[in-house]
Amino acid sequence: MNFSSWHPLGVAPNAWNVNQTDADITRPPLEPRPITITTETKTLRLDLAKTAIIVIDLQNDFCHPDGWLAHIGVDITPAQQPISPLNRLLPRLRSVQVPVIWLNWGNRPDLLNISAGLRHVYNPTGEDIGLGDPLPKNGSSVLMAGSWGAAIVDELDQQPQDIYINKYRMSGFWDTPLDSILRNLGKTTLLFAGVNADQCVMATLQDANFLGYDCILVKDCTATTSPDYCWLATVYNVKQCFGFVCDSQAILEGIHS
Questions:
Q1: pLDDT digits (tens, 9 = 90+) for 89-106
Q2: With 209 labelled, which of 126, 140, 143, 215 sits at a CA distance of 20 to 30 A?
Q3: Angstrom distance (rounded) from CA 246 to CA 250
């Protein structure tokens, strides 16, 4: 086999090396970077080389006073609580090459992949402001890809290497490239953050668990505008059925040690 003049194809670790005569499809693994963190149920040893964080729906329509949730009368104060801890956690994760994945509602303009039942969630009478409709305050189309409402709130730090994925259901794995991207990157451990904990975060985390990913809910980087019992049930179910729960400080300490 001619090992000279290799050209990489793909994204490590799911990458080949090729030249005119040969192809190396061994896919060398990434160098392990194990850390230990404390969760609410067990002490975990995980590999940062196989880890990504998914930050869900921290966008204007859910977290800004001029967004859709506030327009329909929801107190969005809880949805803003993850911002500060995430601004402490994300730079440290980036520094150890953990990908930051922003997973936001961002629908097609024609809503052709959105069912009537899903549209009903956002406009139960058919007479209010729902998916794709302009908000009275700023004209932004609700949860539309490319709109102000679908954009991440300004208070959160973003970087060029971050990954952006639009979703169209409460689960970010439904009809999106999220699973393919994670598998290409060789990520098997997923940290979850964002809003709402009991809806889009939980649905995405559950699907991740069903697909075989190891799931960790980062408690102080997650919130909900739902009643407290919804939050308590979410935390309980994650610990009982779908993964682990920790706070961001445990991750920071694990990286630092």
A1: 999 999 999 999 999 999
A2: 143
A3: 7
**Strand 51-56 to 214-222 pairing:** unpaired
pLDDT in tens, 37-57: 999 999 999 999 999 999 999
Q: Residue 198: what residue type?
A: D
Estimate to the nearest angstrom the gap between the alpha carbon of 244 and the chain centroid.
16
β-pairing, 14-18 vs 23-24, is: antiparallel
Q: Residues 109-148: pLDDT tens digits? A: 999 999 999 999 999 999 999 999 999 999 999 999 999 9
Spatial distance between the Cα atoms of 240 and 79, rounded to a whole number of angstroms: 24
Q: Are 156 and 87 in contact (CB under 8 A)?
A: yes
Phi/psi for 2 (5° steps) reads -85, 110
Q: Two tokens at 82?
A: 């993850």
Helix ranges (H only) for the chain are 60-63, 68-71, 83-95, 116-122, 178-185, 202-210, 228-237, 248-256
Domains for the chain: give ranges and CATH numbers.
35-256 (3.40.50.850)
